[in-house]
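pls ignore typos typing on phone
iron/sulfur cluster + seq
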Amino acid sequence: MTTTTNKFIIFGAGFYGQKALEHYGAEKVALFIDNDASKQGTLCKGKEIVSPKEAAKLWAEGGYTVVIASLYGESMALQLDDLGVKDYVFFISPVHGMYETEELVLNPYEQTKEAETECEWSSSQKLSYSRAEVNKMVEKLHDNQPLFNHIEIETINRCNGTCSFCPVNKNVDPRKKAVMSRELFEKIIGQLEEMQYSGRLSLFSNNEPLLDDRIVELSRYAREHLPKARIHMYSNGTLFTLEKFKELIPLLDELIIDNYNQNLELNRPSREIVDYCNAHPELELNKKVTVVLRKPLEILNSRGGDAPNRKELVEYPDDRCMLPFKQMIVRPTGEVSLCCSDAVGRWTLGDLSKEPILDVWYGTKFTKVREALYKGRKYCGNCKYCDSFSLG
Ligand code: SF4
Ligand code: SF4
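k done
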């Protein structure tokens, strides 16, 4: 990241903004920008937080570079474009890690208080901020219709977890068991290879990837054929042995272990991995591995109305959704689902066992879904009950 100026304005006063401050040095940072009005006028690490508009005036005086430091970076860039700010850089690249941190263990509840009721979840500020961001981003995506930058290939549709918010936890999973054939897997990877795919690749979707005994060899195959892809994996960590971890980690760009434990304690496999990473600082595994302390009993998004612990569904008829503009979800049979929130595969938009990947992505069903979601969730079936506002 190079710039010709010596003063920085950091856009985002959250976790990544503070990391950017450390990176550039406090003496070189003039102030922070944040879209959260309740933060504006306060201080973050001794620096004033202002609105984007105020910062744009300062930028116009010359001598400043804006550093976008947030997972919402793409939409912030659009905001800066609208304000005429041309000199900006990204602290996190647009196809970023899910957790751009070198800390091995994260406790997300320290940053964001969990919702205690469904009502509290629905009225959270985080949700309203994400809604606004998604609605803006879809405008841009609708005009450009880019290729997906995130593909999830679910090689087995099973999980051993019992998370209360998950429509496919092992106590409620309605899906018929399916395992992807090696032939189909190689066919899909081959098509991505032809495209020189460089987005995010996940060898899982709504499942626990380590339930597939072939996960190491499948990851190796993907790594060899897609050298530019960002291969990442989420796992609940319960099936890891240290040996499996050591085999898998060189093949991945990022491993996130969602360590589900209601008391926020490390489960044994996670503890072993953390101890191993700490004992071998020369391997710098903290750059790839993040163990996230998660509660299995938690109120989260409704996932199109399918979350088993959500009863009070709120409708979002006029909101848009960006997932089908950015994400392709492939089931073990080759069927392509609407999005990662469509955990049980209610919608099938194509079948990669029969159709080429680009024909599905630009095909009639995906196009219709995108048009519907551009107009509003009420035009797309159960999407109107969905309060997932992911930025992909
Ligand atoms: S959230 Fe993940 S770990 Fe939990 S039950 Fe669902 S698929 Fe399994
Ligand atoms: S609104 Fe529809 S497409 Fe978007 S995440 Fe929810 S279920 Fe998926």
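The mean pLDDT is 91. The chain is about 30% helix and 15% strand. more later
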